[in-house]
């Protein structure tokens, strides 16, 4: 049997491809992963301005989901945006794009996240806009710039 | 024999999302517990100068009680240590004659000089060796810090125990020991660490631990984790009954499998493990098998065993444009993430307290108390309540009456978790 997704050969009767994990059913080859690219739906470039006691850092949003949190060598947790703040969780929040819009989702962090000084519900994706400011822990803010 | 259950079978991921976390619960069948494992037991007693008096007397009595409880199938060794280790007796089977001679040797132990824990652990490993057909355990008692040698030397001895699959059950008697040191010994060897506040409680602690050790039915248990090409295991830690970071090895027989050592299990015992996988992003609307767990282990009745899992024990992922579906959080992953935060807040709070930064300690221990209350960790709530309290205005304050026992009990128990009901 040949996997329709990755074209790997599998033994007859295999339920899921032993190479890629796709079901061994007739299916069309998968389309390449979708990506919002570097711009939002309005064609604007998205920049995340992270301000902490260590200084200011500008992180371009590439369309790939970004994890923000406290880096932990012991647990091998390396967020794309590492926050040097003891009140930040290791997996504090995620920034991601959907249908050309940028969203933030608090990942049930210990101390929560504020959007423009207002606490946001944990686990719920919330759309963010130009000049919105996310507050994390005691010292860190992330300002969204869409240009 | 084993049941491995993921917290969810199917995870919905957002387009572009390349991480997946799941909790695997591993439980030994209660109704088919199997034959109890043969034991190899090391009794290791601190005989440094600070043990002089009631502590060394109680340690001798506790060790003698355990020796009386050994059966002829059990191999044992007794070691005492200060700056040097002395094998008092063994290795020998637990026959009447061997036990009588060992008891006589224990009765002659006197306290004096410093503390080098590595000497004792190395002597015990040398005596017990490695035998996957037995559950090998060390009962380790100390009353102080490992002050007479470098930390690295102890770490090497602890690693030798782990490599020989010997679990160390470590106790600090009194309050002058280092919780981080004992927790390290326990974590690396899949053992345990606890406080014995007074010498009078040594005997009960030893006997309770030995009774629990006797329930061991499975030795050299391993999780076998299969994943498709391109899926990487990024992190794995035990999250119940306490938090421990785990390592893994590549399975030499299958490039897509990782092997994770779990130590020994007793009948009915359950542990939970949090895993993070990095997965190759695929298009929406297609399910992919991401994790197929299995187990390998050794039992006295059946020898080396391997168990595969059924489809309902596998983990799948599907990317979706449905934001609400992808936003759903796994309640068990969220629960254990909070338990990890709790553990870290306690440790950081204790560090601040030790450094004299009472303001930071109050803040961090207060945060820990809030998390433990919110997540229903009653044991930690009780222990934290001994250290921090709210005054009539609702302001958190350090309890001025908290004693060293309260601080050390919290320090050694940091990382103990509750299950999500």
Give the N-to-C terminal Cα separation of chain B. 23 Å
Mean pLDDT of chain B: 93
List the uncertain runs of chain B.
Answer: none
Q: Roughly what fraction of the amino acids of chain A lie in strands?
A: 25-35%
- Name the beta content range of chain B: 25-35%
Count of strand segments of chain B: 20
Describe the structure in your own words.
The complex is a heterodimer of chains A (147) and B (421). By secondary structure, chain A is mainly beta. Chain A has strands spanning 46-52, 55-60, 66-69, 81-82, 93-98, 101-106, 113-115, 118-119, 126-128, 133-136, 140-146. In chain A, strand 7 (113-115) and strand 8 form a beta hairpin. Chain B has helices spanning 54-69, 96-107, 117-128, 151-163, 179-188, 202-213, 323-327, 331-354, 358-374, 378-385, 404-413, and strands at residues 2-6, 10-13, 19-28, 38-46, 75-81, 85-93, 134-142, 166-173, 192-196, 216-226, 232-240, 244-245, 249-250, 257-266, 270-278, 287-299, 303-307, 315-319, 388-390, 396-398. In chain B, strands 2, 10, 13, 14, 16, 17 and 18 form a seven-stranded mixed sheet that branches. A six-stranded mixed sheet of chain B has the order 6-5-4-7-8-9, with helices on both faces. Chain B has a five-stranded antiparallel sheet with strand order 1-3-15-11-12, with helices on one face. Chain B starts with a strand and ends in an 8-residue tail after the last helix. Chain A binds chain B through residues 5-6, 15-23, 27, 30-36, 63-65, 67, 74-77, 86-87, 89-91, 96-99, 103, 105, 107-108, 110-111, 123-125, and chain B through 14-19, 227-231, 234-235, 237, 245, 256, 276, 281-284, 286-290, 311, 316, 319, 321, 323, 327-329, 334, 337-338, 340-341, 345, 348, 364, 367, 371.
């Amino acid at each position: 049997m040949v996997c329709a997704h990755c074209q790997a050969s599998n033994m007859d009767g295999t339920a899921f491809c032993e190479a890629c994990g796709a079901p061994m059913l007739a299916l069309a080859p998968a389309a390449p992963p979708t990506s919002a690219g570097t711009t939002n739906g309005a064609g604007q470039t998205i920049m995340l301005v992270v301000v902490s006691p260590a200084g200011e850092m500008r992180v371009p949003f590439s369309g790939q989901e970004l994890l923000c949190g406290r880096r932990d060598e012991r647990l091998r947790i390396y967020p794309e945006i590492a926050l040097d703040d003891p009140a930040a969780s290791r997996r504090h929040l995620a920034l991601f794009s959907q249908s050309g819009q940028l969203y933030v989702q608090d990942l049930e962090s210990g101390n929560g996240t504020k959007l423009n000084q207002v606490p946001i519900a944990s686990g719920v994706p919330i759309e963010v806009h130009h000049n919105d400011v996310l507050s994390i822990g005691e010292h860190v803010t992330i300002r969204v710039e869409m240009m | 024999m084993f049941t491995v259950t993921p917290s969810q079978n199917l995870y919905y991921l957002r387009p572009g999302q390349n991480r997946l976390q799941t909790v695997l619960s591993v439980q030994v069948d209660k109704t088919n517990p199997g034959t109890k494992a043969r034991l190899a037991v090391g009794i290791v007693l601190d005989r440094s100068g600070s043990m002089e008096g009631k502590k060394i007397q109680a340690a001798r009595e506790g060790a003698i009680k355990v020796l009386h409880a050994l059966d002829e199938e059990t191999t044992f060794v007794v070691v005492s240590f200060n700056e040097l280790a002395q094998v008092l007796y063994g290795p020998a089977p637990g026959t009447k004659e061997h036990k009588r001679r060992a008891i006589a040797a224990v009765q002659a132990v006197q306290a004096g000089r410093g503390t080098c824990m590595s000497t004792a652990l190395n002597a015990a490993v040398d005596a017990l060796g490695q035998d996957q057909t037995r559950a090998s355990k060390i009962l380790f008692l100390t009353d102080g810090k490992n002050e007479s040698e470098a930390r690295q030397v102890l770490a090497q001895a602890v690693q030798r125990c782990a490599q020989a699959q010997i679990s160390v059950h470590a106790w600090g008697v009194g309050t002058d020991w280092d919780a981080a040191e004992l927790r390290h010994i326990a974590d690396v060897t899949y053992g345990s660490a606890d406080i014995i506040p007074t010498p009078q409680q040594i005997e009960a602690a030893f006997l309770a631990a030995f009774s629990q050790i006797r329930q061991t039915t499975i030795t050299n248990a391993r999780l076998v984790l299969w994943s498709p090409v391109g899926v990487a295991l990024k992190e794995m830690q035990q999250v119940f009954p306490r938090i421990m970071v785990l390592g893994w090895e590549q399975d030499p027989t299958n490039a897509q499998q990782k092997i994770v050592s779990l130590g020994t299990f007793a009948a009915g015992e359950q542990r939970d493990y949090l895993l993070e996988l990095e997965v190759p992003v695929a298009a929406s609307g297609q399910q992919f098998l991401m994790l197929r767990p299995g187990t390998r282990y050794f039992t006295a009745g059946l020898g080396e065993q391997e168990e595969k899992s059924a489809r309902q024990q596998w983990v799948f992922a599907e990317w979706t444009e449905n934001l609400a579906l992808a936003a759903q959080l796994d309640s068990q992953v969220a629960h254990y993430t909070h338990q990890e935060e709790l553990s870290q807040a306690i440790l950081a709070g204790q560090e601040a307290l030790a450094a004299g930064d009472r303001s930071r300690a109050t803040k961090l221990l207060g945060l820990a108390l809030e998390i433990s209350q919110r997540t229903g960790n009653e044991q930690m709530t009780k222990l934290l309540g001994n250290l921090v309290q709210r005054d009539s205005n609702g302001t958190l304050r350090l309890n001025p009456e908290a004693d060293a026992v309260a601080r050390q009990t919290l320090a050694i128990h940091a990382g103990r978790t509750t299950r999500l009901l």
